[in-house]
Amino acid sequence: MADDPAARVADPGALLPDAAKAPRTPRVLLVDDDSGDALIVTELFAEVGDITDVVHVQNLADAIVHQGDADCVLLDLNLPDADGLDGLTRLLGAEDHPAIIVLTGDVDEKRGRAAVAAGAEDFLVKDRIDGRSLTRAVQYAVERRRAEALDRQLHEARVHERENRRLGRGLLPTALLRDPAVTVTARYQPGARRLLLGGDFYDAVETDDGTLNLIIGDVSGHGPDEAAIGVSLRIAWRTLILAGMPAAHVLPLLDRVLATERHDPILFTTVAMVSVAADRSHLDLYLAGHPPPVLVDTGEAGGPTVPRLLPDHHLGVPLGVRLGTTWPAVEIPLPERWALLLYTDGLVEARDERGEVLWTDGLLELLGTQLGAVGPAWAENPDGALDALMTSVDERTPLRGDDRALALVAYAPSVSQQRMSWKHEPTPGSCAAVRRDLRDFLHSAGIDDDSTDDATMIASELASNAVDHARTPYRLTATLTDESLRLEVTDGSAAPPRLQALDVHAVRGRGLQMVDDLATGWSFHHHDEGKTVVADLPVTRR
């Protein structure tokens, strides 16, 4: 199961600047070349006393210099360097201009309407105002302008939120999992307060053969272009995995995708890719310039919880650096119960007030302290574990500029899960041994006769194919849970099994058809040893 990190976005109101939330006493810029009129206006404000911060300039040039510090401009239309609506138009042309009220001796109502139509908040005639009406006009104009700014910023914040959600669905998808023992929990945080999502991405796909495939990547740079590249790479990766592409070939193909899709030839992407075997006993790790994941060994129930970095001695260059590069895998054994923390470098490159970087050593220290405090119980609440880790990182290294993505993948098999494996030579008699061994195993586990008959028939047919066609030693593995059984037959041949059309008169060739009828699903995959055929079926206990 997996959560939806794309839904974890900021409240739009939290993105608004503080200045847009709290009103204050207006600052007024008076633009009038008549010093006598300017003195009268100042005295009118003084009569009421609500507005005390008034700056007087006598021409438009000075007004343009000072308007950025004002909340409201009182503008005369007859200035030495601007006449009529020209001065108003020039002040309105400034980005984020303050409220502007035309205050003039002109009593022409037509001119007043033209000024308001051009963008002025009001049109006042000097001889027709008193201190209270002037103060009220300025206060209303400032609040209207502030409300407009707040409206605009709220709209931008909502657009930002929708864009984050849209890109988040592409960068941080819902994992494709079938194994109930596997959970994926993810988090994403943009690096700067108002930035859109960057190019950090992750994905998790369990293929039909039971292999668990994981990836986390970080596209260099920030913004929608980098996010689009991240989405392209993630979708390409998922497509290749679902199409059955061998893991060793995936990163070179993603390298080619990046080279054709990027808008900047120097853009690169770091990647960590993990392929966990169907029996969850080991993983293959591929690193392309990316920090290694953290493996958490929970030990036996009630035992210690120990985090450690996976090895990075086969660390390769990032994608996009050198076309034609290959990335070797490192095979790593896994404990019975484990978790993997995959992350982008935004988590470990944050700094404290002294400029010290957290890096992987600090991450292990924080994670070890956290897990040591709660013990194996952390696996019961992966959301809380990730939130607590991110809080600890922020407290220790609060200075962060980069995005960060995290995915916690936990494997906690049922206590009742049982697994057995048998090796056989490719002899006709080995099929009888397969049926006998599997029947004894299922009977001892309390599986009823009908389920046991179906299972032994499937196993016998898969073993017969290995004997007749592969002609190599083969291995049968049975994994039993409360309600299901998985049978895996591994042999040394790369030749794929072929399901043939049913022919009731044929002496041979009906084995896979029988498997297809009895199993809830079956598949096969290739590997270095040859291939493995996998069949799943439900079981009932006596």
Descriptive account of the structure:
This protein is an alpha+beta fold and 542 residues long. Helices cover 35% and strands 24% of the residues. It is built from twelve helices and 22 strands. A hairpin with a 5-residue loop joins strand 9 and strand 10. Helix 1 crosses helix 5 (131-171), helix 6 packs antiparallel against helix 7 and helix 8 (359-374) packs across helix 9.
Instruction: Give the spatial strand order of the biggest sheet.
Output: 2-1-3-6-7
Q: Helix fraction?
A: 25-40%
Q: What is the tally of beta strands? A: 22
- Overall pLDDT metric: 84
Rough outline: elongated
The total of helices stands at 12
Ends apart, CA distance between termini:
30 Å
- Characterize the largest beta sheet: strand count, sense, and whether it forms a barrel: 5 strands, parallel
Keywords: Hydrolase, Phosphoprotein
Domain Response regulatory: 27-141
Modified residues (4-aspartylphosphate): 76
Protein name: Response regulatory domain-containing protein
